[in-house]
Structures
1.
Amino acid sequence: MADEDLSRLEAWIGEIIAGLAPAERRRASLRVAQALRRANLDRIAANMEPSGDPMERRRPRLGRDGKVRPRSGRKMFRGLRALRNWKIDADEDGVEIAPVNGLVARIAEINHFGETATVGRLRDGRRIRHRYQERRLLGFSPEDEATILDIAADLISRVAR
């Protein structure tokens, strides 16, 4: 979704939400946040980026004998795709979906931005560092826009009653 589309959507939703009572605004923003969190976690579980492209696969890991380790091609982000690792901060003014703690935030940050991190140590104590591929974990997709519009339509129908 382009930035100008997102800003128009935000302005339109803002007008709808401005007409609601504070408690209704908070409930509406919570529904939007829950839907976006669920959609993003489903994409993470499917190893898909918000744009719909598949994430770059993991590099195969070699064992001491030089052969590929047996479990090296599995799904990524087993811990990040759990609901308990992402909190929602929703109020009348907006929503924020953020990692629950610093470890989850660091893992997500390393993979989202493609940073370098320590993955182990050699016997002499030197660090083994690896540069991760950039894999967008959180973002908006066209399906998310449709979900937000459905929630807004439900709000309008409730207010019209």
2.
Amino acid sequence: MRDRQHIETLPFHTDSGLGGTARIGLIVLQTDQTLEYETGALMRGDGTAVYHARIPNETEVTPETLRQMELDLPAAASLLPGSFGFDAIGYGCTSGATMIGEDRVAAIIRQVHPNAKVSNPITACKAALTALGLKRVALVTPYAPSVTIEMQKNLQAAGFEINAVASFDQSDDFTVARISSDSILDAVRTIGARADCDGVFVSCTSLRALPIIATAEAELGKPVLSSNQALGWHLMRLAGLDGDRANAGRLFKTQLTQNR
């Protein structure tokens, strides 16, 4: 029998690992095709590390299927290891946070990560609108009316005037992710041209809205927000990152206000 080959033990040292500036966690819907791609473009660099966990969800988007995610949220949050020391964690579903309740979503995540700051796209949208000083907002969604109406009510209850609402009226999340960015730009152009709105919010993390924001703002002369853009901005600001991002819109030139 041959002798075992000698394996030399090498010396090493450890450091603080990735995310020396900030560590951000994202809870992403099982069916989402867009959130990781768009927020990755926003958060990459500056010594920031972003980690993802997926949460089960139904492809059909209805108030009932969205509320079902509350049951799986604790397990999904637990997939983001507490030992990583997250600065901020986001639940990546605008309509889900609307239906479950923003405070409930935050409470569930904080049960697992008590030291992390928490956001979701609808909370981030409100913080962004406040930072930009906007009150009269046009809302674009991909959802069926039952979901769109609840989101409109949510924003109105927070003190925002939703004077114009338009939807692609789709319940299939796979289809929503395949709506072209050009179609989203056309929708923003149409609804954003109204005189009774000072900005536009494009809701849904599945919609590929980030690439059209700079163009839409230049044409309309108004701020344009999207779920992924607002969530990325809010998580970065909560984590102490104050940098700008090219082609990410006016929002990234602003900071959080005191009350958000």
